[in-house]
Specification:
The protein is an alpha/beta fold. 40% of the residues lie in helices and 14% in strands. It has 13 helices and eleven strands. Strand 8, helix 8 and strand 9 form a beta-alpha-beta unit. Helix 1 crosses helix 13 and helix 7 runs parallel beside helix 8. The structure holds phosphoric acid mono(formamide)ester.
């Protein structure tokens, strides 16, 4: 049984097929591909785009979506084995995943890191537990990566450049300031899909502490070796932006400070100037800007950048609907 946990688990032809199918769904909204089928959307964290696009996507395919928020409108879940469950959790993932799989044909999971211990968070325990116990395919709706966002971004770039071949495009993934330390998922994912597509990718971040986990650096290196792109890390804003075709922004917390965010805050506060603004975008090759959203205006990117015709974030957000319909359809085959 195939899950959709990371794009890195899927072959390039399979990813290309998902993107091609998404483009079809963008033209032809309705289909009966999920007629009589259902998906459970399990949210441990808030969402606007993911929840809406999955629910509407299932509806447009003739299927049904059920949203569950463990600890809110569903029982809190235990994930460790051998635990004496005398705390908050009312049931174990071993039962939850297997019971849900008797009702539905797909399970989507959103479970962000706990931001206390990256060594634990990087194991992606919640998603892996659903995949382990579920007897139906599991879809990652953002955990420590965000593969649905990757596909939506790739489709938006293919649309913008008018080609499915993104090789040779200069792609900058820039860290931006945010008042809180955020998940690295979208950054890990942007790096993964941009290198997979053969682009010349620069990871721009303020200091070595903000470099991403070695797993994703390894994926990036492996991907460019196969796709013919390139990958570099930079802490220099001007050289990273110069000549860029794509600027993708995301804020994230520095991995060495997981669980000890106090000392990280004054460091992060020094780098508010990483905001994406018109002066930086003027260094690019008439480049496009995007972000996964939600985005704090005039913190991560200025109003002028967000309102520019070169901003494709809304197109990318729309594409979540189309790519997720392609993913659900592919997994139901
Ligand atoms: N980009 C994204 O996943 O948005 P939500 O957090 O609103 O779902």
């Amino acid at each position: 049984m195939k899950h959709f946990l990371n794009t890195q688990d899927w072959s390039r032809p399979d990813l290309d097929a998902l993107l091609a199918q998404a483009a079809v769904f963008k033209r032809e909204k309705l289909s009966g591909a999920m007629k009589g089928r259902a998906i459970a959307l399990v949210f441990f964290n808030p969402s606007m785009r993911t929840r809406t696009s999955f629910e509407i996507g299932a509806f447009q395919l003739g299927g049904h979506a059920v949203v569950l928020q463990p600890g809110k409108d569903a029982w809190p879940i235990e994930f460790d084995l051998g635990t004496v469950m005398d705390g908050e959790a009312e049931e174990h993932i071993a039962e939850v995943a297997r019971v849900l799989a008797r009702y539905v044909d797909l399970i989507g999971v959103r479970a962000f890191p706990k931001f206390v211990d990256w060594a634990q968070d990087r194991e992606d325990k919640v998603l892996r537990a659903f995949a382990r116990y579920s007897t139906v395919p599991v879809i990652n709706m953002e955990t420590i990566t965000h593969p649905c966002q990757e596909l939506a971004h790739a489709l938006a770039l293919q649309e913008h450049f008018g080609t499915t071949d993104l090789r040779g495009k200069k792609f900058v993934l820039t860290w931006t300031y945010h008042p809180k330390p955020l998940n690295t998922a979208v950054a890990n994912s942007a790096l993964t899909i941009a290198t997979r597509m053969g682009m010349d990718v620069t990871l721009l971040c303020p200091t070595p502490d903000y470099v991403l986990d070695e797993r994703y650096l390894g994926w990036a290196q492996a991907n460019v070796a196969e796709s013919g792109g390139s990958f570099a890390i930079s802490h220099d804003i001007e050289s990273a932006y110069r000549g860029a075709d794509v600027v993708y922004a995301k804020s994230w917390g520095a991995l060495p400070y997981f669980g000890n965010w106090g000392p990280e805050k004054p460091i992060r506060d020094q780098y508010r100037h990483f905001i994406v603004d018109e002066a930086k975008m003027a260094l690019t090759n008439d480049g496009v800007f995007s972000h996964c959203l939600p985005l704090r205006r005039n913190v991560k990117a200025t109003d002028a950048v967000m309102d520019s015709p070169r901003c494709i974030a809304i197109h990318e957000a729309e594409n979540r609907l189309h790519v997720q319909k392609a993913v659900m359809t592919a997994l139901l085959r």
